[in-house]
Amino acid sequence: DAKTTQPTSMDCAEGRAANLPCNHSTISGNEYVYWYRQIHSQGPQYIIHGLKNNETNEMASLIITEDRKSSTLILPHATLRDTAVYYCIVRVIGNTGKLIFGQGTTLQVKP
Amino acid sequence: KAGVTQTPRYLIKTRGQQVTLSCSPISGHRSVSWYQQTPGQGLQFLFEYFSETQRNKGNFPGRFSGRQFSNSRSEMNVSTLELGDSALYLCASSLLSGRAPDTQYFGPGTRLTVL
User: Across the interface, which of A43, A46, A103 has its CB nearest the CB of B109?
Assistant: First the structure.
């Protein structure tokens, strides 16, 4: 699985959009980009995934660059409950569910 | 639909003892993966089971083992506990359908403290 690079930490004001970047310059054509988040000491929670098109769901939007070497997770209106560690993971969908987690980005939403 | 459940939620053991942790996947999910999370190493993959067979194994010593039952429930065992085994142990389940999104759903974890 490709390696990802994320900033260690970010701050965001409550009510503003939080934009979390991820670099995955060695991604392969059949690898998907997934985002999970982990609120303190809870199990990671799936947020969104994408292959090459931009994606949006009720939680967030995922913007993947045309060359697929980087992506941005957007939380449109961050709340205090969005304070968490956000993980960007690339993986092939196939016969394994194994996820390789990096260090993630700690997002602190401030009032 | 009930989520992934893990028991016990908290556990305190002493060095040299062994421990068994349990994971019940979401109904219908046949893949179960285990992860260890520590402040120093982050989230690390332990092993994955599918249809009672181990499919993948992470880079952990043989003291860490697991199994999966016919109802997809899984257990992991750690023998001869060391202080460094203190961690949050997480279980995740998925359909492993081979089609997107093939989401991994995580349980709340078991917090193991080794004294």
Answer: A43
Give the chain B residue whose CA is nearest to the CA of A85.
Answer: B42
CB burial of residue B5 (10 Å; 0-12, 13-18, 19+): middle
Residue B94's φ and ψ, nearest 5 degrees, are -155, 165
Structure tokens at A17: 């959009």
Q: Return d(Cα B69, Cα B75) in angstroms, integer.
A: 8
Whether B1 has a pLDDT exceeding 70, the answer reads no
The tens digit of pLDDT for each residue in A29-77 reads 889 999 999 998 899 999 999 999 899 999 999 999 999 999 999 999 9
CB neighbours of residue B28 within 10 Å = 9
Q: Tell me, yes or no, if B36 comes closer than 8 A to chain A by beta carbon.
A: no
Classify residue A6 by its DSSP letter. Answer: -
For residue B98, pLDDT beyond 80: no
Contacts of A19 (CB under 8 A, 6+ apart): A72, A73, A74
- pLDDT interval class at A95 (50, 70, 90): confident
